[in-house]
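Build the 3D complex.
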Amino acid sequence: MGRSPCCEKVGLKKGPWTPEEDQKLLAYIEEHGHGSWRALPAKAGLQRCGKSCRLRWSNYLRPDIKRGKFSLQEEQTIIQLHALLGNRWSAIATHLSKRTDNEIKNYWNTHLKKRLIKMGIDPVTHKPKNDALHSSIDNGHSKVAANLSHMAQWESARLEAEARLVRESKLRSHLGTSSSILPSPSSSSLNKHDTVKAWNNGSSVVGDLESPKSTLSFSENNNNNHNDNNVAPIMIEFVGTSLERGIVKEEGEQEWKGYKDGMENSMPFTSTTFHELTMTMEATWPPSDESLRTITTAATTAARAHVLGDPVVQEGLTDLLLNSNSDEDRSLSPEGGGESNSGDGGDGCGSDFYEDNKNYWNNILNLVNSSPTNSPMF
DNA sequence: AATGCTCGCAACCGCGATTCC
DNA sequence: TGGAATCGCGGTTGCGAGCAT
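Done.
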């Protein structure tokens, strides 16, 4: 079955939008809502296809869009979320509430990706290009890796669901009662049944994480937006297991100590919590309603505990990335010695602060390293 | 001043998912 | 229930601005 074109191409304008077209589109949507995008152009008097109108609205004209330079906080959030979610721009965008997925995608491709490459980090996997250290970790601890991957994927799915709620709630609050602009209630109503259905549909959590629903409310989510910029920085500290500690210690006692001192004290997500959670996940797949509740609650609690990360470490990570242009010899790049096992470790700038940053970043890398190759998440 | 190159961004394209009939 | 219509997402392209030569 061939796919029909989204619109008749003949006679329709393409390319950049003029101010007049913008005005027409804005005026129409403000008055009537967009309704069917396909039908909108004719009604609004535009020589555009509905898809083009939708994109223009969602990427540019929507009133709740923040434009301009990305803040450090936003950059940091993008990098962290990308490490976890990969190129899932819409999911990432929901945690930078006023940015569009398109804008984030562009910013990643034009700025952040290059910065990581310059640091010697693969922007796709978030691994250092010189990767011997991490592969040895993976070989020895595949079970932990699998658990971490599950955690990441559960959390990723939850983020997506929350994201929808955020977007819809904000639209509602912004546009008041103009319900015609909003998706139909049936598409956004989230309840236990939806949640269970979504999870059960994912017969393999590794291979299928599509659109699980969350029971979390927007106000709950809003609690995470604790900084200015409405950005919820995500800290993923799943390495806090006793087994993982052993791994890192094997690789470098000093490194882990730095991480431990800098991070563990601020992280209520204990190894016990993680262990219980992963054991539950292993034992009950596919989950029953009961175990699903247990898992969801545990995952949500754990993730919540980590959304509020150590701001000092976060800032350090950002600095590390942002300063890479002028300060590459202190970066994580293998050339800089930061990631190597050569034993020069301190390389003359080994402050605890820097060590914390490095270990935090290693933390994300470890999480990504642990994902299975067939996972759609990474 | 003219030309070429690079970069950043807006917009397009194609596909999968979802909804509608 | 199945096909068509529509939506949403991620990848890619094209163009304009800025910079270098």
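Residues 155 and 303 of chain A are 7 Å apart (CA to CA).
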